[in-house]
Design brief:
The complex is a heterodimer of chains A (345) and B (550). With 345 residues, chain A is mainly alpha-helical. Chain A is 57% helix and 3% strand. Chain A has 14 helices and 2 strands. Chain A has a two-stranded antiparallel sheet with strand order 1-2. In chain A, helix 2 packs parallel to helix 12, helix 5 (126-144) packs antiparallel against helix 8 (176-194) and helix 10 (204-226) runs antiparallel to helix 12. Chain A is elongated. Chain B has 550 residues and is mostly helical. Chain B contains 24 helices and 7 strands. Chain B has helices at residues 7-12, 41-46, 68-82, 84-92, 104-109, 116-131, 133-141, 143-148, 156-166, 174-178, 185-197, 204-216, 224-242, 264-267, 271-289, 311-328, 340-353, 382-391, 413-417, 423-432, 463-484, 494-507, 516-523, 544-549; strands at 257-260, 293-295, 332-335, 379-381, 407-409, 488-491, 512-515. In chain B, helix 21 packs across helix 22 (494-507). Classes of the chains: A mainly alpha (345), B mainly alpha (550). Chains A and B meet through helix 1, helix 2, strand 1, strand 2 and helix 9 of A and helix 1, helix 3, helix 4, helix 6 and helix 8 of B.
């Protein structure tokens, strides 16, 4: 069964070797330090835009929010203005809670059978907690990396660094986000193989990004705390890339190139994978629409006329019986040709 | 129910550990008790559905048209282009598994393909193979690689698996509440059912009601005179119980309001008692306030099994509501207790068959309340209408007539997750009953469990499936039954009334099922009524007879 994660692991190891060996070949540093990063960014940007454009080409024919609270109806009944928004501002709040705090995942429960005749639903907070840590720490790490791409380094980046390293442990100072990222990604991997249901549904494409991100975080930490990479040299490469004056610093070490290569692979892989949930969450019709479809008409651009059974056709079939039962009719019986005999009634 | 295992056997057979073999390598086995019979070709023909034919799900050969793969592929493409929901939901699932144990069919069966994520993967796997670049490239390397990215080719086995599992989802949307991206399996099931309907694959419990509804105006195929007969029969019962003769009107032009409710209320116990509740309520309002309402035999169905067939069929059946309102010249429409009927009215009707510009903005003629939330669709839910009446003290109620009941309330999937109608029915219940107890928080309101038979799965031959799916709801009822002595389960849905009656009988036989308006009908004091000694079920009212004797 678990060829899925074996193959993914092998893929990441192969990528590692590619970078490790490749960078030592003639021209390797230029290839991995300049060409690949540019290509990856191009693929990421174009791929991402293309995917979002493709989604938006399909219309939203019906207003189908999943309502997770009381609707707005009578004025004296308190409505859930965020979980069941009736206005755009409510929708925006709902989306913020969803994107920034993973609101829906916070509801997660675990169903268990107990005592031979009971089912219990216990609050299951770990997936929510570690997903939150994962996304936030990833964001923080990413944001901190702006230090390599800006000169002078913006104050907000420096501030975040201060916060991230507030424990003041070690030299260079330990950044919590890196450790948190590694821990969260490890948790997300372990739950994938430990929880039998999750293992059962997991695909290679679920393990691959986890291994890749683990590789990125791991090589990053290795460089910062252990191999103590030449930071000034790295910054020179990064600045070269963003100013379009590519530059290669000699002797920077292969760990850096492996780190960079992993990041490039992740970027290029992104638009073609489930990682596109980053864009997709904003376009999910069950979350991003206001529940006001009875108050305000929603228009379906491809609404087409359909064949219906009209009242006239209905009355034509049942007229005799309707008259007999004393039901009002549009046309009296003599207007129509006699139908099949129904005397048996 | 004779073939269904005993409740304790069924319960102990549930296990959540998936098999060792990967799901793609487990061929579908269509099991008795789980699957529903194929649609009757006559019904398909009546509503011009394609490929009407005799076929049997357990046969090897399904008599498919030769180019069936092409039809599915074209249909899939069309739907991707028409529905952003399906396109986004095909792409963004990360398989976090949060939805896995949220599905009542998974909780009650342990079948891994009933995990919402896997149900969606059944379609997604084909989508990846046929419609994504990555799927096409990686798939061309070899079959093993396909499997790793979760892609596979559509073949007869896959199609059978679709059919089998698409009719083990009740489109209840509970998974969608827990999904971090709101991926809605209902949406996926709706699309999947549309696709297999292109090949004439359906179940009879859906397609025959559809054909009936198209012809006679209601799912049960009740013809106009018979519809009136049944209502006359209820009127007689009401007279016997209350001493008051109620006279509902039908197809009456110029009435102020049109009333539409599921035909199940006119046909099947215990829905019939709620129907009597409506009749009592309307009579009361007519006597006291000159309320002017009519029923219709043409639009005599609130429910819409077209919704379980395709968007187009939903529209075709739903069209009768506005057409009849227009023909009769009413001001607005009042809708009875029903689940999916209300999802269709709330989220689809105006878009499909509107604008209803020939109607007026709904205003309660009794309280003057403007139903602002329904000002475009012009259709008001009966519990919204009644809650407003009670709030304005317009109903004379004697809740003590329901004192022998300890009531809990089951939120219908569609009214809670496709609308948010949660507190209106509770307000009504609390005003007509003195003993009300909520089930545990994880099983009510937006987290409510399906009755187990929604979306057209209320057949007889799939009883084991229905009891599996009904387990989570029944288990929560059992909890309040044991803790508080609850003996009555109230709901606002015709399918619930039929389905929960069966699942209560199976899982918690001490608890009965009622519509909210049966409770209203029992509590409402009609002008000129005789002392009530019986409830609407013609059962003696405990305590009320004793007083007589004294």
């Amino acid at each position: 069964m678990n060829i899925s994660y074996m193959y993914s692991l092998i893929a990441v190891v192969v990528l590692f070797l590619l970078a490790y060996v490749g960078v030592k070949l003639p021209g390797g540093e230029v290839f991995f330090g300049v060409i690949i990063p540019y290509l990856a960014v191009i693929v990421f940007v174009l791929g991402f835009i293309n995917r979002v454009m493709d989604w938006s080409r399909s219309p939203v024919p019906f207003r189908i929010p999943t309502t997770c609270g009381q609707q707005k109806s009578l004025p004296w009944i308190k409505s859930a203005s965020i979980d069941n928004p009736s206005t755009t501002s409510g929708v925006i709040l709902r989306m913020i809670l969803e994107v920034v705090f993973l609101r829906s995942l916070f509801r997660n429960t675990k169903a268990e059978l107990k005592d031979g005749d009971k089912i219990s639903y216990e609050w299951e907070k770990w997936l929510w907690l570690f997903s939150l840590i994962f996304h936030w720490s990833f964001f923080t790490v990413l944001f901190r990396h702006l230090r390599f791409f800006t000169e002078p380094v913006p104050a907000c980046v420096q501030l975040l660094e201060k916060l991230d390293g507030f424990l003041q442990i070690g030299l260079p100072i330990l950044m919590l986000s890196g450790v948190a990222l590694l821990a969260a990604v490890t948790f997300l991997f372990l739950r994938r193989i430990w929880i039998s249901q999750v293992r059962y549904i997991s695909l290679g494409s679920d393990y691959f990004p986890l291994f890749l991100i683990f590789g990125i975080a791991f090589t990053g930490i290795l460089m910062r705390y252990f191999t103590k990479v030449d930071i000034v040299g790295v910054k020179a490469i990064a600045m070269g890339l963003v100013t379009f004056k590519p530059h290669i610093t000699e002797g920077i070490g292969s760990i850096f190139y492996i780190h960079l290569f992993f990041v490039c692979v992740l970027l290029a892989y992104f638009p073609f994978s489930k990682l596109m949930h980053l864009g997709g969450i904003f376009m999910s019709p069950s979350r991003n629409l206001a529940n006001n479809s009875r108050a305000k008409r929603h228009v379906n651009p491809w609404n087409y006329p359909v064949k219906i059974h009209t009242y006239d056709a209905y009355e034509d079939e049942f007229r005799e019986k309707m008259i007999e039962a004393g039901l009002p009719v549009e046309k009296m019986i003599e207007d129509q040709t006699p139908e099949e005999p129904e005397e048996k009634e | 129910m004779s073939d269904v295992p005993k409740p304790d056997e069924l319960f102990s057979s549930i296990g959540y550990r998936p098999p060792r073999t990967g799901w793609m390598d487990i061929p579908v086995e269509i099991k008795k008790g789980i699957y529903s019979y194929a649609g009757n070709p006559k019904s398909l023909e009546y509503v011009s559905l394609p490929f009407a034919r005799q076929w049997n799900p357990i046969d090897e050969d399904w008599n498919l048209p030769e180019n069936w793969k092409e039809i599915i592929s074209k249909g899939f493409r069309e739907r991707l282009d028409r529905f952003r929901s399906i396109k986004v939901f095909m792409d963004i699932c990360v398989r976090c598994g949060a939805c896995a144990d949220k599905c009542h069919f998974f909780i009650g069966s342990g079948d891994p393909k009933n995990m919402p994520v896997l149900r969606a993967e059944l379609l997604r796997s084909v989508y990846r193979n046929d419609f994504t670049t990555a799927g096409k490239i990686i798939g061309s390397i070899g079959k093993n690689f396909k499997k790793i990215i979760g892609a596979r080719e559509l073949d007869l086995q896959v199609l059978k698996e679709w059919w089998y599992y698409l009719f083990q989802c009740s489109e209840c949307r509970r998974c969608s509440v827990f999904c971090p991206y709101g991926i809605d399996t209902a949406e996926i099931t709706i699309m999947g059912r549309e696709l297999i309907n292109l090949l004439g694959l359906n179940i009879d419990w859906i397609v025959t009601p559809v054909a009936n509804c198209y012809r006679t105006g209601n799912h049960l195929g009740i013809q106009p005179h018979a519809y009136k007969d049944m209502m006359d029969f209820f009127a007689d019962d009401i007279e016997e119980i209350t001493g008051v003769k109620v006279e509902p009107s039908f197809n009456r032009k110029g009435a102020e309001i049109l009333f539409i409710t599921p035909s199940g209320d006119v046909f099947a116990d215990p829905g019939t008692f709620s129907c009597m509740g409506y009749m009592i309520l309307f009579h009361y309002l007519q006597e006291k306030y000159g309320f002017d309402i009519t029923w219709s035999t043409y639009a005599s169905e609130g429910g819409n099994f077209g919704f379980f067939t395709s968007h187009e069929m939903m529209k075709r059946l739903n069209a009768k509501m506005y057409a009849e309102a227009k023909r009769l010249g009413v001001k607005w429409i009042l809708g009875g207790e029903c689940g999916h009927m209300w999802r269709v009215i709330h989220q689809y009707m105006d878009t499909m068959n509107g604008p209803a510009d020939f109607l007026e903005d709904p205003v309660s003629p009794i309280t003057g309340t403007k139903f602002e939330n329904a000002k475009s669709t012009k259709m008001v839910h009966i519990t919204e209408f009644v809650a407003d009446l009670i709030k304005h003290d317009k109903l004379e109620l004697d809740p003590s007539r329901n004192d022998h009941l300890k009531v809990t309330y089951h939120d219908s999937c569609n009214t809670s997750r496709g609308m948010g109608l949660l507190d209106e029915p509770r307000y009504v219940i609390k005003n007509v009953c003195n003993n009300f107890y909520e089930m545990p928080a994880n099983t009510i309101r937006e987290q409510t469990f399906c009755c187990g038979s929604g979306s057209g799965l209320n057949a007889g031959e799939n009883m084991e499936l229905r009891m599996q799916g009904g387990l989570p709801r029944a288990n929560a009822v059992k909890y309040v039954h044991e803790k508080h002595g609850v003996n009555m389960l109230a709901c606002i849905c015709a399918i619930d009334r039929a389905a929960l009656s069966a699942s209560m009988e199976y899982w918690v036989p001490e608890v009965e099922v009622t519509g909210v308006h049966e409770l209203v009908g029992n509590a409402l004091i009609l002008p000129g009524e005789t002392k009530r000694t019986m409830n609407l079920r013609s059962e003696p009212l405990p305590g009320m007879e004793d007083e007589d004797a004294e």
